Amino acid sequence: MNIPRHLAVIMDGNGRWAERRKRPRIIGHRAGARAVNICIDFCLEHGIEALTLFAFSSENWGRPEDEIGALMKLFMNALDREVDELHRRQVRIRFIGDRERFSDKIRARMTSAETQTRDNSRLTLTIAASYGGRQDIVLATRALAEEVAAGRLQPDQIDEAAVHARMALSDLPTPDLFIRTGGDHRISNFLLWQMAYTELWFTETLWPELDAATLRRALDDYAQRERRFGLTGAQIAAQPDPGTA
Ligand code: IPE
Ligand code: IPE
Ligand code: MG
After folding, report:
1. What architecture (CATH level 2) is domain 6-132+174-223?
2. How would you list the strands of the sheet with 6-10, edge to edge?
3. DSSP state, 174?
4. Which of 10, 148, 171, 236 has the greatest number of beta carbons closer than 10 A?
5. Dihedral sign of CA atoms 147, 115, 129, 186 in order
6. 129 alpha carbon to ligand 3 midpoint, in Å?
């Protein structure tokens, strides 16, 4: 079976899961933290090389203050609780997004998780936190402009590879499969550049209800698809490994 090398996930539906139970939204976020483990276990079992989870978007900072406060606490607790075990299972942990907006305490935990696990190679787990796809493009653009201004780069050297190299996740294969839970069919400013040819899969399942059977359905569906990257089906058939760039 054709297994994705890189899976990118929007973990959505925590709030609605709680609201349906007449509970505060934060209860949904807490339940969602458990689903993260199910997803990581699934990737380890199936030999998926990279998992990128959208945990908190740059726009999510606009949510009510109490929800953000509770999310930060949950984030902190998850870092304290899970990192050693992930390290034991040879998971490399990384974060993408604007760290400056987090507290010093959280930032320090993020750095130490990255340092502790940086030599692991079984699964690269990237947590997108305070991340926005547009912001990612802006930062890459700014980096290029600075290099041009400093005379280290000529404008005509700016090509797709040059942009790509300055975007988040540039050292990984681009996502093969994207999953969004929670029933909405949108990207919500996730990996805009990186998902140009990613296969998209959506489920009504709310994130806290995630189970291995749902993930298996996504993988089964993915295995049936023909990725053409702009070419014809006949061309793809003649060239079994078209690459994933
Ligand atoms: C996703 O669940 C988690 C975060 C965005 C932090 P939501 O909180 O967006 O849940 P819904 O979409 O409101 O149900
Ligand atoms: C996307 O979910 C971001 C995360 C899951 C972290 P949102 O709930 O913020 O997206 P919208 O607002 O429904 O587009
Ligand atoms: Mg949502």
Report:
1. 3-Layer(aba) Sandwich (3.40)
2. 91-96, 123-131, 50-57, 6-10, 177-180, 199-202
3. P
4. 10
5. positive
6. 14
The rounded percent of the chain whose pLDDT value lies above 70 is 98
244 has pLDDT over 70: no
Q: How far apart are CA 78 and CA 53, in angstroms?
A: 14
Burial class (CB in 10 A: 0-12, 13-18, 19+), 34: exposed
Q: Compute CA 152 distance to the chain's CA centroid, rounded to the nearest angstrom.
A: 32
User: Is 120 marked active-site?
Assistant: no
Placement of tokens 């790509």 in the chain: 164
Ligand 1 near 13 CB (within 6 A): yes
Buried b (16+ CB within 10 A) or exposed e, 106-117: beebbeebeeeb
Q: Which residue ranges make up each domain of the chain?
A: 6-132+174-223
* pLDDT tens sequence across 47-86: 999 999 999 999 999 999 999 999 999 999 999 999 999 9
Q: Where are the alpha helices (DSSP H) in 167-231?
A: 212-224
Residue that is written with structure tokens 């003649």 in the block = 238
Q: Which amino acid is at 174?
A: T
User: Among residues 14, 60, 136, 176, which one is catalytic?
Assistant: 60
Per DSSP, helices labelled H in the chain are 14-20, 25-46, 65-88, 104-117, 133-149, 160-165, 212-224, 233-238
- Average pLDDT along the chain: 97
User: Which amino acid makes up residue 166?
Assistant: R
